[in-house]
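Quick one, T. Sequence first:
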Amino acid sequence: DWAYGSNLRNTRGALQYTADGRVVYPAGAVAVVLQKATSQGVATQSFVNVHDDEITALDVHPDTGLLATAQRAADGKGVLLCVSRLLGTSSSLLARVDCGAVNAATAIKFSPRGDLISVFCADAEHTALLVDWQAGWVVARAAGGSQKVLCAAFSSDELLPAGGARILQGGIEHFTLHDFKPADASALVSKVGGFGVGPDGLT
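Structure tokens:
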């Protein structure tokens, strides 16, 4: 089988590379893992088929070979987040997490350790979720603001208290920082960023 095309038009940052150079991207309800052609052979594809609706966000952890994919909500169901391990030309599903009725995920990102995933949603509040995928539950949440979130990133773990996380969300002319501290159960403390001119005259 061969998948022609992709649904990158409706996603941002959803074409990712694995540590060994394979290309991963969504095509409908499947994630395609493309091994580029070499001088010894032709290009090959394998498929991660764990969803029943369109994948709207995707991330690959650079060190562990883990793949996170999220699909849009359909027929009154919640948004489904799946974590799979890429194994050569095959894959194994490790977890499914229901993120609730938030329409779709517009951006997802693994933490540096790979144990947490940030999920940014397409509901009215553009909800930010912090998910412990191994435990299968949403650790914390916060309203993400009035504008669509198109990208996400974590701060390096060594800058944070044990068990904590700092997440950056970004979009067109907006960004917000979300801090998670284990002592503040279920809460993300958010700070809206502002663009301006710094002391060096740069924006």
